[in-house]
Amino acid sequence: MRYLAGVSSLTYDPERCVGCGLCTEVCPHGVFVVVDGKARITDRDRCMECGACMTNCMGGAIDVNAGVGCAAAIIRGLVTGEEPSCGCSDDSGGCC
Question: What's the total number of domains in the chain?
Fold first, then answer.
């Protein structure tokens, strides 16, 4: 699944990557792969900004503004029992 193009807050510093591969294991959308001992971003627009990669990055190479966008809206919807709304979808008010 891809979200809105070019709006993800995900940043990655390959110099800080220790090649542990945890980002590939925890990312629900396969944003990362490890090639030649370093993580690489496959498609930044697949990022739902959940923060799992950043939380688990042993080298501190990944940064993302977790808790914004679609992931936050879905979690808020599950917690409150309301329909998720992040404001980024069509006119229905739902979430991507």
Answer: 1
